[in-house]
Amino acid sequence: MKLLSISASLYWLILFPGMAHAGSGIVFEDLNKNGVRDQGEPGIVGVAVSNQREVVQTDAEGRWTLPHNDDTIFFVIKPQGYAPPVNETKLPQFYYIHKPAGSPQGTRYAGLEPTGELPESIDFPLHKVEDEPDKFKAVFFGDPQPSNIDQVDYIAHDVLTELIGTDARFGVTLGDIMFDNLSLFEPSNANIALIGIPWYNVIGNHDLNFEAEIDSDSDETFHRYFGPQYYSFDYGSVHFVVLDDVDWGLHAGKEKKTYRGGLDADQIEFVKNDLALVPDSKLVCLMMHIPLMGVGNREELYRLIEKRPYTMSISGHTHWHAHFYIDEKDGWKGKEPHHHIVNVTVSGSWWKGRKNENGIPHATMRDGAPNGYSIITFDGAKHTLDFKAAGASADYQMSIFVLDQIQSANSAQTPVYVNLFNGSQKSVVKLKVKDRGGWMEMKQVREGDPYFTAMRQREMAADPGAKWREPIDSGHLWKLNLPADLKAGSHLLMIEGTDAYGQTHTGNRILRVVP
């Protein structure tokens, strides 16, 4: 029987009518790390490549073929033991953007110039990394969100300088890289690059082109600087998936364009195809901007990950820090609850508050925790998150609130509050009055942090025009009344608390008691 031969373009047109053409190329080992395939540089077999929907693996020669339309981003999915090149601002260069007509015009911030015809071969360079262990650290920023160059400088002095020389392998910003002013991408990227590690980025609702009519056109400036708005990569034994869960446009019931939490069909298909190639032994870490609980079609995503033994996810957006354990009450059908982290934000309360001696606002978040960032240690399929308050010692893990002075007769009616910044429902927090009895377990409460409430009142009294948001019911606050009839004098309150990972932290507070 004679076989009918058809072109690759026609083949893809039959399978994918919306994508009339095919692009192809080679993933190769860049032996001299110059970003160009030179003679003798071999293709790499079995590497995944995507067009943000389909995912294929390279053949024995490192070649791949995928369909495309006139708005397609091809990218290589970094495998363990290899790395893509980074540009001068440490942004990984793992993608090729095909927009022959360029970005839509009429937006305040520029997108992409026309890319022209597709190259005959789109080749992705990777170089071998000899030291990519299963145990490693990564830095996570939530919402740096500068709206002007002064706030770019706040980030530099409050956070970036203390990260110089970090042993983390890479960093991630979990969206709201900017606060609407996308012209600040360049100076911000240049500053973060000085940390000296590759830096990945998630798109947030303040990183969009707000003039765009539809979601697919709202990411053009992000594409210009960072490439695809959703993608994946391996590091060590972890498979990281970056999601774009910010759905922009004119939604039902709204009078003007806005955003909501959601994942489009192409993205869901990408995640499905991507994870089909990821062994169950790997931890899958989803990284997004809007917390998972705020994504309208999150159950579609749950169905793709809930049968896997090792998953976690992390987001920003809310400007408070918390650990959630998603279970059947939210539609999750996995054997164990899914751990979702809402990450501490770099900008805290949007860079508000009185300035310290370095001219930087304290920016305390609405849950009573300081602004800062997290460092996650991944170890095989396990992880441990360490909360880091900006500009403070790594030991600063809690705040203790109680009146400075009380009367002895009122001690049993006087509450002590402990805000364990990285605490969760799995934490245990205990209080002890030195030289008076043993440890007493405190009760977790869902209240506004009294420290933040008092601070907010002081701020608004000093500046009546200041707009401070109300405190939220903190997810990591504990409370206990003092023992009865404390004797007059000075007393040392001792606190011991375990965070969400069972790590023990301690704190002290001095209390004066009068007759």
List the helices and strands and how they pair.
Elements: H1 8-15, E1 21-29, E2 48-50, E3 55-57, E4 63-68, E5 72-76, E6 82-83, E7 95-98, E8 124-128, E9 135-141, H2 149-163, E10 170-174, H3 185-193, E11 199-202, H4 220-226, E12 231-235, E13 238-242, E14 246-249, E15 258-261, H5 265-275, E16 283-287, H6 298-305, E17 311-315, E18 322-326, E19 338-342, E20 372-379, E21 382-389, E22 398-401, E23 405-407, E24 415-420, E25 429-433, E26 436-441, E27 443-445, H7 450-462, E28 477-481, E29 489-498, E30 504-514
Parallel strand pairs: 1-8, 9-10, 10-11, 13-16, 16-17, 17-19, 23-30
Antiparallel strand pairs: 1-4, 2-3, 2-5, 5-7, 6-8, 9-20, 12-13, 14-15, 18-19, 20-21, 22-24, 24-28, 25-26, 25-29, 27-28, 29-30
Helix pairs in contact: 2-3, 5-6
Polypeptide structure, described:
It is a single chain. This protein is an alpha+beta fold. The chain folds into three domains: 8-126, Immunoglobulin-like; 137-389, Purple Acid Phosphatase, chain A, domain 2 (4-Layer Sandwich); 398-514, Sandwich (Immunoglobulin-like). Helices cover 14% and strands 31% of the residues. The chain has seven helices and 30 strands. It has helices spanning 8-15, 149-163, 185-193, 220-226, 265-275, 298-305, 450-462, and strands at 21-29, 48-50, 55-57, 63-68, 72-76, 82-83, 95-98, 124-128, 135-141, 170-174, 199-202, 231-235, 238-242, 246-249, 258-261, 283-287, 311-315, 322-326, 338-342, 372-379, 382-389, 398-401, 405-407, 415-420, 429-433, 436-441, 443-445, 477-481, 489-498, 504-514. A six-stranded mixed beta sheet has the order 12-13-16-17-19-18, covered by helices on one side. Helix 5 packs parallel to helix 6. The N and C termini lie far apart (104 Å).
